[in-house]
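Database export, one record per block. Field names are fixed; values are copied verbatim from the stored entry.
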Amino acid sequence: MMKHRIYTLSLLFLFAVCFVHAKKVDFGKWEKGYSPKEIGTLLSIRYVNSPFTDFGLKLPATHITYPEVCTWFGALKFAKVTNNKLLLKNLELRFQPLLGEHKKLVPKPMHVDATVYGVIPLELYMLTGKKSYLDLGISYADAQWEIPENAGNNYNKYKELLSVGLSWQTRFWIDDMFMISAIQVQAYRATGNRKYIERAAKEMVAYLDKIQQPNGLFFHAETSPFFWGRGNGWMAAGMAELLSDLPETNTDKPRILKAYVIMMQTLKIHQNKDGLWNQLIDEPKSWSETSSTAMFTYAMVTGVKKGWLDATEFVPVVRKAWIGLVGFITFRGDVAEVCEGTNKENNKEFYQNRRRITGDLHGQAPVLWTVAAFLSEKE
């Protein structure tokens, strides 16, 4: 299996898309070894049999990292859509020590990447009904909009952000728009309280206004003017996650949907012959990168099934991406050619020369999200 297996849309169309009814989508038949369920099973088994690690590397964990959280989240989604009670039990058992003997590994909600941890207890609550999980998860969602006690010299900065409805964790890096969206949308799903998803929508619009470019893609940050693959993947996945549950009556939804559709159209243009997208999306000489590809595929599968994207146009893109992506998954269930964790830099070569890792959880996670999106009966 290691074998390497427009910009302009009328406003009328974009607003109409908001009210398209989702429908069943046929993504076609998969050859043996390529079906989403087979891949989901392979990666889930790989995950539950792996110890906590730092960023998916072969290092003992000093704390639970966001790649770990995102992979766990994907495995929980897969357990849910396949009604795999044994997998769910194992994923819950993985969580139990963090409430006791391994509590020191639990991240505090003092940074956007740490706060996303709350999606796990919230998902476990929705799957098991245990209120203690709900209380824990909501504490993370709420902390994202409460000035921390150790704010120090940042107190006035955080207060100003909160005064305009934004999280104090706002920093205008594209990674944030999955981390913030995921926890706030989860809190909405778990409680039905619209304040959570409305927070996320307002935050998303602020990021769209700040760093989305006319072609629909995103700079990593204002000071990093490059279309980094996984960074754009976080944004694509974050918009898909948010739009999936954002009520039609939310006034920010048309703006977010417009941004999403334009991005998907541009991504379609930049897809490689092998089905993947590059480490730097618009750089033809860059290398095919898997974590970004999985995130884009997740966003597109979700969009096609929700009716935001035309199935005739995007199903072939999705199939090509998925088949190419599976070609980079080893027999053990490790995703190859994953860009290592990446800080922002104003240096193109910095992004081009990032290490390519096999088994890094940045890659494992979005493959599992994509599997769950394929298999979900909730259109």
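Remark 1: Residues 3-22 have pLDDT under 50 and may be disordered.
Remark 2: The chain has one domain: 11-375.
End of record.
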